[in-house]
Amino acid sequence: MTERSALVGVDTGGTFTDFVVIDGDDIRVHKVLSTPDSPDRAIVQGLRELGVLDRMHALVHGSTVATNAVLERKGVRAGLITTSGFRDVLEIGRQTRPKLYDLRVTREEPLVPRDRRVEVIERLDERGGVMTPLDAESVTRAVQAMVDSGVRSVAVCLLFSFANPAHEEAVAAAARAAGLHVSASFEVLPEFREYERTSTVVLNAYVGPLMDRYLARLEEALPDGLPLRIMQSNGGSISAATARREAARTLLSGPAAGVVGAAFVGGASGFSQTITFDMGGTSTDVALIDGAVGETTDGQIGGHPTRLPTIDIHTVGAGGGSIAWFDLGGALRVG
């Protein structure tokens, strides 16, 4: 029987996939080109080149697959089912003005356009009491509208479902029965604040099938029983099963891993206050470490709020492989 002695860390970026192998006192690093159409292929290729595919006792994986899918708007075709009257919450938002004096300010378009946002007739009060029972016919119409529009993944976010998930459970079950990938807010983020909760569950729906598909293939390619841990946005790790189900937790997976590593190196070098700058081929991540790694539940990625715990990182969709160009007005653009 082959001894499983190697601990392997893998970081999948948009351009390169990097490996660190710790095997006893031996530390090795390796790099291969990423395979964006199927990220697991680059991981398996690198593990084979290193000769550790059958010698690992654990694999820890950080990824920018979800990050880049949002920044480059290359997620799946997603839809939203919500309570009647709340179809436009993604566009109404909080009415904040982060660039108050910018005369040419533009807002990020929602990841789910209005024609793929549908309503069901139901209403709960703030304590979860039923004010308007869930209308079964409206659920059937909503699910059929999703199917007819070619949606692959559906976010379900009903008003006050965190207090009583019964209506949302029924809508989610109907959508799953129709063969759709479903992200329900009572499973992803069961808490108040409708705009942020809706945005978070839409992000989960937008990247969920991508993460689910490639992590499933990766698990199949790895030895049976091998612990596979996925870095999540708060700097900790979760199981592959959780990452497949709650993909929004990995939106800053790779960037968070970089900050955790930088904090360790800075601390070992005697620095408690550092700025981390992590430029990959596709995106760039910056974070401030002031004695400890900062965390927030008011994060954003690509202009889209997320309430899941994240390391406080600022990410932009420009990296070493981005193309610089001039627009029609002569202004320099990158990416």
List keywords for this structure.
21 strands; 335 residues; 2 domains; 30% helix; Nucleotidyltransferase, domain 5; 6-stranded mixed β-sheet; alpha/beta; Rossmann fold; 4-stranded parallel β-sheet; 29% strand
Per-chain topology:
Layout: E1 6-12, E2 16-23, E3 26-33, H1 39-50, E4 56-63, H2 65-71, E5 78-83, H3 89-92, E6 117-120, E7 123-124, E8 130-132, H4 136-148, E9 153-157, H5 166-177, E10 181-184, H6 185-188, H7 194-221, E11 228-231, E12 237-239, H8 240-245, H9 253-268, E13 273-279, E14 284-290, E15 295-296, E16 299-301, E17 304-306, E18 310-311, E19 313-316, E20 324-326, E21 332-334
Summarize it.
This protein has nine helices and 21 strands. It is α/β, with parallel strands linked by helices and 335 residues long.
What this model shows, in words?
- The chain is α/β, with parallel strands linked by helices and 335 residues long.
- The protein folds into two domains: 6-70 and 211-250, Nucleotidyltransferase, domain 5 (2-Layer Sandwich), CATH 3.30.420.40; 74-206, Rossmann fold (3-Layer(aba) Sandwich), CATH 3.40.50.
- It is built from nine helices and 21 strands.
- The chain has helices at 39-50, 65-71, 89-92, 136-148, 166-177, 185-188, 194-221, 240-245, 253-268, and strands at 6-12, 16-23, 26-33, 56-63, 78-83, 117-120, 123-124, 130-132, 153-157, 181-184, 228-231, 237-239, 273-279, 284-290, 295-296, 299-301, 304-306, 310-311, 313-316, 324-326, 332-334.
- It has a six-stranded mixed sheet.
- α1 crosses α7 and α2 packs across α7 (194-221).
- The mean pLDDT is 91.
